[in-house]
Fold this protein.
Amino acid sequence: MYGWMGKILRVDLSHGTTREVPLDEEVARLYIGGRGLGARIVFDEVGPGTDPLGPGNRVVIATGPLTGTLAPASGRFSLSTKAPLTGAIHDSNAGGSWGVTFKKTGYDAVVIEGRADAPMCLEITDAGASLKDARDLWGKDTKETVQTLLERAGKSANVLCIGPAGENLVKIASISVDGHRALARGGVGAVLGSKNLKAIVVMGGWKPAIKDAEMFEFACYESGKWLKANPVTSQGLPEFGTSVLVNLMNASGIFPTRNFRQNQFEHAYSISGEEITDRLLVRKAACWGCPIACARRIRLDGAEVEGPEYESVWALGAECGIFDLEAVAEANLLCNRLGVDTISAGVTIGCLMEMSESGLIDYPARFGDAGAVLDLLGKIAYRDGIGDELAEGSRRFAEKHDAPHLAMQVKGLELPAYDPRGMKAQGLAFATSNRGACHLRANMLGPEVLGIPKRVDRFASRAKAGLLIVAQNSFAVLDSLSVCKFASFALGDEFFARLLSAATGIKYSAQELQVVGERIWNLERLYNLREGFSRRDDTLPVRILSEPVPSGPTAGQVVDLEPMLDEYYRSRGWDENGVPAQRKLAQLGLEGA
């Protein structure tokens, strides 16, 4: 095979065994890899009612045919599973260089099942795989774990691991990737913790074969030119990182503040990308093979560490009413070391803060209290006191205290840093996302705010479904290739079709990639329907639906969701309840799914 490595590693933790199986070429053609391959395996092997934290759940870590090639921004990989936070099918995506090294071991994916009797570490090299005792690592944070494993394996290795939050089955636990990237959402860290799998170490030297090297090199060159010509990928993101969005979103009245009670933060500039650059930046950083270089290395308390991304700056800053930049950076660092999802942690703490200020709960945490945030993050990771309740996520926490309307979540997954009342298509994207509220299933920032590829009225509710569906399909493909979504600010589907065709020797058009994305999206939908999800779950928090924005550029706005859902379902070829029609399934080759 070209592009793909042609092998999958199967690991059974219950029996302590590993084995190789060939990658099904037809499955690869239909689902590409990464998220698509993971969705197919999870759908086939994680049956209805499976406990996400039980041995029957699967963890599928997969790269795509572009991972580790010359294709720009292609250093990514996906992890797919059934999420403990939501009960829905889920994938998390990360950059860095772990995925590239994993592919160099000769595998396209590793499928992990069962549960080990004691903490284990999975080591994968180009000579094979083995399970090693990791009891001495249990209890260590992610920084300590990475350092220890690199001392043992060598600096050429890459390490994926969980921290205390994953060990304690915190439902908002993340997985650290080399200590400075994360597979963050849905509680994926708890899934590894439930399997007693502390870490996965990879070392390899193989390279994917390219079918048409000359055409591939030219397609990479052309893609690089477009990335350099686009102001977002050549100036905004490299100069100020992802937090360049803070001031823009705040000025537009889309920057959620204090648990979405407002959508402008009076201290936004204090936590912006510009301020990070002026006060804390040491140097820019990039994932493997990425020309954009949006990551930030900052100086904090005398040490050089990874700086917070836009979502983390928001969740641990404006969402909690905090504008002390160093405190936000410290909270971000603590989340990384404990293995906690910054978005879910910040939103869940914001929910607590509102309940506390409203007298619904007796706990000393108020908006603007940075010390409380740092204290609560530790409590969450170790399930200490009220942290045991917060560790279940905002939906369960708010329901327990009879205030479900204060949980800013969809399907159990906390909303990210975009107020849908000022971006109506983004609201529809949150509501219909298969993994819950997520800006990475489809981000409507381009058309609704930046005017990329063209500007649409962000307050309009009608005629948004088609635009959203194209974006959802495209993002499913990018996650399967696996390529960073930031590249899509400059590159359309036709670029990725050319890259994929040259790499694999299989002819794909832009239209055919849309069909692949649609196939993946519908398969994920079928999984969730099988688990009992329905139209009632394709919704938004009550606050977003019924509480008008109090002031600013989006004053008076709410999301009128139901007509948008009707239009979306019709455009998808689903019935009024959101169930894909048999005709649609037949078109996508999903008749028997």
Notes: The radius of gyration is 22 Å. The chain has three domains: 7-203, 243-407, 420-587. Residues 243-407 form a domain with the Aldehyde Ferredoxin Oxidoreductase Protein, subunit A; domain 2 fold (CATH 1.10.569.10). The longest strand covers residues 197-203.
